[in-house]
Every structure is written in structure tokens, then in C-alpha cells.
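Posting for a labmate who doesn't have an account.
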Amino acid sequence: MFDKIKNTATKNLKNEGIEVETALVSETPDGGMSAKLRSMGEGVRNAGADFASKAKELNVFDKVKSFTSASVKTVEEIDAHLLATRSPYEINNFRVSSTAGVTAGMTLDIHFIKTAGAREVASAQSKYLVVVNPSNGNKIKVPVTALTGRDTAKVKDPDTGEVLEFSTKTGAVIVPS
């Protein structure tokens, strides 16, 4: 069977103009490999061992491991700092990636999001404009939807009955001159 496969392959390769050395793939009388094939296998094995020793010298995997560990430590420190300073942001997720090749490199991507409390405050700020009465410090919430298309507006303080004119962009009370 082996001879039939060898002959067919040799014939097809010769038809394509490729020289074939049949002694390379011939069987020995005891059913083993030919000497050329055995020496070729030893050459491949030696090249593999040589590559492995050179790969250890490069230490690429150790560099990737140390970069990943340093990145995780950095993310932990940033997260601890955000918590300690009561920041309105928190780390949503992060990714460490590395590429090997001609232009090898390693990157750390950190994505932040607002905390739940900060999202609630921002939502309230986008729905209402707060006007502060300068005479008594009362805070009056005015729906933003009622202020569209105006530069100034007026609101009545419910406690004092005082009418306040304010800027619709900032909420600052305009003091008449």
C-alpha cells in the first residue's frame, strides 16, 4: 500500500515538473524509515530544541506576564483612589492585550462609567433647574421643559411670594438695577 501511494505521488509530482527523490520516502526491509528521512527528522528535532533555547532567551512570555500583573495592580490602585476620593466615576471594565510580530506591543484599556449616585444627580440636573432666592436661600426647582426658547424667566418663591427673574441657562437670579 505504501508503495502504491509513493508511486502515485511521484508520478503526479513529476507531471507538474517537480523532481522527486524517492529514496527519501522509501521503506527499509525491516519496515522502518530510510536513513535520509531519519536524518531529516533529527535535523528538525535539533532545530526545535535550538528554537526553544532561543525563545527562553527572549523571555517574551515573562514580559507579557509582568506587564499583565503591573496592569492589574495599576487598575486596583486607580479603583482604590476613586473610592477614597468619592469620585463620581468608577472602573467599568479593563482589558490587557498584547501582540507579537514585527510591530509587537502591549496595551491596557480602562473604561470608566459614572457611579449610580452620579447618574441620579445628572438625571435630576437635566430635568430641573434650581433657582436660589438670594434673600432667604430657598431653592426652587423649575422644570427645564418649561424654559425652552427663553433667555430669562420668572418664578415665584412659595414662602415669601417674591417674584424672581433668573437666567434660564445658569439659574442665577437677575438683580434689577
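Reply:
Got it, the C-alpha cells are right above this. Helices lie at 2-15, 35-58, 60-84, 116-127.
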